Amino acid sequence: MLNILRRIAALLALVNSLALAQEDCTKFVVFDEYSSSSDYASYERLKTATCQDTVKDVGSAKSQSLSLGIPTEVADDVFNIKFDGKTSDQNWDTWKQHFCQSTYYEAQTQLSEKHISKVFSDNALAAVKACEASDQNYAYFQINKPGDRFSYRFKKRDGKETLKKATLSGNLASADCPADNPFKLTSMQRLFGYDLSGVPLQADCPWNGQSGAMSLTLKNGGIVTADLPKLQRVDIPPPPPPAPPPKPIMIFWTTNNWMRGPFSITLPIGNLTCTQTGKSGGWRAGTGEAINSRVCPDLTLNKGNNSFDSRDYDSDYTDNYGVCSYIISCTQN
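User: That's the sequence. What structure does it adopt?
Assistant: Structure tokens below.
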């Protein structure tokens, strides 16, 4: 049963990719095997695509993701994650803010059954194959799984074609792939043009994650340009963030006017670690003293019955009077 479901999923991916090819394969120009190496890398890659000022809504986020080689199916899975109970199509601005500040571990539970790296890999490969099978000129970059090299591949449409010039711009050029001759053509090929009637045109180059573009000048097809965006490397996922410290439980308590001897404050729940963090007010012992002439005493935690006690009130007086207010901060053990 599982194998049948996988075949159906692969077929649907191919159908979606064929629709992409028939529409415009120039939108899908990065085949990124590196970012589909793990769910973590796929999640971070989508954040790179989405968390830009130019991305204003779900539609532009999906378009931007596609241009960076992220299949629509991956974007759909991630955009359906809920932050504060809402998905991206319910409140885009708030959702985007949460998403861009999130870590993969925050969304891991919601994505646990999605396997977005597998969705990424299967659909990206299907899209490339469909675009190569189309009747369009198709140029794309392929990032290898280690993420240290890229390949540029160009499949021409049917008919005779000649490469007149190729330029590798931005930060992609290297000794292995010169900016003005990335395919290492001979002097005669560069002078008279390179016949593209044979195998697809291909260049394999080292890469350090930087951006750039490959531009081809064709005799019949004009200029074909493909952009490779900068890719933030995520070789080693960081450990899950530590659990946030427990929020303190604040207790505000005030004595009654007549304070005769020791009193206690019973805490609302058990198993707490508490400290007194503030106090105010005052009291007197007997009518012979001025009101509030004595400072309110500190409280002492009585662990035996989970209460705070005051031992400092003078119980010998029968006319104690005062009001003392306390702030107690507790954390659950």
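The chain has two domains: 2-228, 249-332.
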